[in-house]
Design brief:
Blueprint (H helix, E strand, L loop, with lengths): L2 E7 L6 H14 L3 E6 L13 H11 L6 E3 L2 H5 L5 H9 L4 E7 H4 L8 H8 L2 E3 L21 H9 L10 H9 L5
Parallel strand pairs: 1-2, 1-4, 2-3, 4-5
């Protein structure tokens, strides 16, 4: 049995905080891996700005040197709206111990999630800090927040501004090559 932190999101685009915070959480909690699960379509967000093919390719580039990380395409393959509870129940059938990593911004709306009570019971979520979001809950991990919010990164790119130090060089090059977020 592997101890796995489940980390979902649109990763549109993936940035440094998407890599560093889950790693820090894994180390702090004594888990063995982080399983990244790109969502096809989040029920509480709009349609992703880029296709699932580009988002997956960028996530693969961002994680290329992260031996502790894996990517599951379960929600991309399922297509349609991505519900975390469905993913958790599928992955639990594999026998791993799973805890859900959730950003502080998502924790604020957690009770809107499909079957949120079951998620609490099955995957005992822990909360990652996010700049500008205050969470008073014992689930909040005491980690240093890192710069990077995908919405802000898309705005910078659209305005032709630098994202150096916020996204890894490989992701930045991919965005440029494919002319994303213009």
């Amino acid at each position: 049995m592997m101890r796995t932190l489940l980390y979902g999101g649109t990763f549109d685009p993936p940035h440094i905080a998407h890599i560093q915070l889950p790693f820090d959480a894994m180390e702090l909690l004594g888990f063995e891996r982080v399983l990244y699960v790109p969502a096809f379509q989040s029920p509480l967000k709009g349609v992703p700005h880029t296709s699932d093919i580009h988002r997956l390719a960028m996530l693969e580039l961002a994680l290329v040197n992260c031996t502790w990380a894996e990517i599951s395409t379960i929600e991309l393959e399922r297509s349609g709206t991505s519900y975390t509870i469905d993913t958790i129940e599928t992955l639990l059938n594999g026998g791993d111990e799973i805890r859900l990593l959730i950003g502080a911004d998502q924790w604020e709306q957690f009770e809107q999630w499909k079957r949120w009570e079951d998620i609490l019971r099955l995957a005992n979520p822990v909360i990652l800090p996010r700049d500008g979001v205050v969470v008073c809950n014992e689930r909040l991990l005491q980690l240093e927040s890192h710069l990077g919010v995908s919405t802000d990164i898309r705005k910078l790119l659209k305005n032709g501004e630098s994202v150096e130090g916020i996204v890894c060089a490989e992701v930045k090059d991919y965005i440029t090559e494919h002319q994303l977020y213009l």
